[in-house]
Amino acid sequence: MAELNTFQRIRDLNWSHSVVLALYLCERMVPNYEFFCHITQFGDAKPLRGALNACWDYIANPKQTKVNFSRWQEKVDEVTPSEHGHDMLGVYPAMDACTAISVLLQGLMDKNAGNLLDVAKVSQASVVKFIELNDAEQVSPDELRQHVEEHELYQYEIAMQQAMVDFLESQPQVNAALIKQMRQMVLDEGVSNLGLQLDDD
């Protein structure tokens, strides 16, 4: 399975590169939350954005930058929606975006590389869940797994994660210049992991 190979390659990255990859993946999930907020008038994307900005600053210069990861995690938790009371497909990607950022923050608090890998798993699972829920009525249960694996969103998610691992493996170290490049790459890609356009703000 392609995703299993991807996960092993992520495990093999060093700590700083793993953090950068997790941040990149979280950035690609935030537009799903912003779309949910726009549609439902629930929540606030500022804590998600603030948490990611703080983490980018931290990994660019960890010795000089102090971040209260626990407090940011609390702020993200406060704006995390629940499937109860939101009867719409979009609640799940919004929840997944919050989960991914919370897991990232936990990993930075605990210095746990397993949490950083979990961000990649959350991103992939979010794509799978979206396809399954969106297409369940058009595809028989027996064919659903194959349908997901052949879906362009899923294939793009796998390819994107592998491409980012390729790129990071070629970078000898994480520094401010690489962070700036990575953040620009998110903007240049221009879409979330579900294909939503990124907000230009």
Question: Outline of this structure?
Answer:
The protein is an all-alpha fold and 201 residues long. The protein has helices at residues 2-12, 15-27, 30-40, 46-60, 69-78, 91-110, 113-135, 141-150, 152-169, 176-189.
Folded structure, characterized:
It comes from Idiomarina aquatica. InterPro entries: DUF416, YP001051499.1-like_dom_sf. This is DUF416 family protein. The protein is mainly alpha-helical and 201 residues long. The chain has a single domain, classed as YP_001051499.1 domain like (YP_001051499.1 fold like, Up-down Bundle). The protein is built from ten helices and no strands. Helix 7 packs antiparallel against helix 9. The longest helix is centred in the middle third of the chain and has 23 residues. It is globular. The N and C termini lie far apart (37 Å).
Pick out its properties.
10 helices; single chain; 72% helix; mainly alpha; 0% strand; 201 residues
Low-confidence stretches: none
Query: Quick one: CATH superfamily?
Result: YP_001051499.1 domain like
Mean pLDDT: 93
Overall body shape: globular
CATH architectural name:
Up-down Bundle
Overall number of strands: 0
- What fraction, in percent, of the residue positions are helical? over 70%
Helix-strand category? mainly alpha
- N-to-C order of helices and strands: HHHHHHHHHH
Protein name: DUF416 family protein
Indicate the topology.
Blueprint: H1 2-12, H2 15-27, H3 30-40, H4 46-60, H5 69-78, H6 91-110, H7 113-135, H8 141-150, H9 152-169, H10 176-189
